[in-house]
Amino acid sequence: MRHIDDDERRARLARRHALHPEHRVADPVAATRAMTVLHSTEPHSVHLAIRARTHGVTLADVDRALYDDRTLVKQLAMRRTLFVFPRDLLPAAWGSASARVAGTEARRLAADVEKAGVCADGAAWVNQAVAQVAARLAAGDDLDVAALRRELPDLEARIVFGSGAWTQEAAAGPRVVTVAGARGLVVRGPNGGHWRLSRPRWTSTRSWLGDVPEALDEAAGYAELVRRWLVTFGPGTEDDVVWWLGGTKSAVRRAFADVEAVPVSLDHGRSGFVLPDDLDPVADPGDWAALLPSLDPTTMGWRHREHYLDAVDAPFLFDRAGNGGPTAWWNGRVVGSWVQDPDGVVQVLARRPLPAAARATLDREAAALTQWLGGEVVNSIYAAPMVRGERLP
Fold this sequence. Notes:
This protein is of the alpha+beta class and 393 residues long. The chain has helices at residues 6-16, 28-34, 43-51, 59-68, 90-95, 97-115, 122-137, 145-151, 173-182, 205-209, 218-233, 238-245, 249-258, 314-317, 356-373, 385-388, and strands spanning 3-4, 38-39, 72-76, 82-86, 158-161, 168-171, 186-191, 200-204, 262-266, 271-274, 289-292, 327-330, 333-340, 346-350. A hairpin with a 6-residue loop joins strand 5 (158-161) and strand 6. Helix 6 (97-115) packs across helix 7 (122-137), helix 7 crosses helix 9 (173-182) and helix 12 (238-245) crosses helix 13. The two termini are 41 Å apart.
């Protein structure tokens, strides 16, 4: 069995994630393909993740790919998380991860509708409301949820959800639109706000994309997602893929079989998988540094992170739910975080003293990011505890 140690895993990360300067890519689509998908829970993460993997790409270039060329598309998928997908990968998600999310969300909404006394048949109510949203947007209009609620009275139905201190009453509209989006019927179109804010205007998938390819069946969809994950992140463990995919072990095992994944041994007593044509050694590309945003796909790509993160550092860089804040990297390892001062100047916060070469390179990265942001300050709700100045045991 081929053994791939942590050094080689870091070398693969540097090359395949387009983070080493010599392996950066030309445009936003290539950067997204390199990572399979990009996390988009916080909109600024998309722009910063692309910036870290390209040379000379601007904020306007990213917006053009998202909203003009539409070569990148936002889609709710794995783990009920919003991602930016390369356009050609959407059919795989629609038939597998997104369909799973749509089913879960529709069932929860149906139960809440029945509990609130809105309708005795919650599933039928959800399907009807989703159909109303799809029909309203079929002509190509783009509307935010508030506008949809004004035009479609069913979306104003009040429901109560959550439990205990988290119980709240709200209109059903946003959750109906979420189900419609997860089903691939509607899509987030133009952004009604600044690039750092998420204010989507929804439109029909057909009007946004033109020709809409048919969704793959579930098995084929999962197989394609897992194949691309292995290209980007392999080797990875079964646990890694189950976590990333938000799926079941049986679905992941079937996908491994479908793509003919090959088992390999890893450090720390783990075993993992790669694609059958990915067994050749990968050489260390040399020194590199990177400043990545919160929820960057490199930071969030694996469940088991020993090859790039010291366990003692995790509580300082990840919140209690496992969301990674902004990170500073040196030669394939997370060495700290980064912040901006009120003037927008980027500063690196190292977890421990760094070699002079690492400190100097990271400082150059900070200066370059400061210039790229042009005084814009990005804030994250997933800021690392060390950024917030929390005292941890």
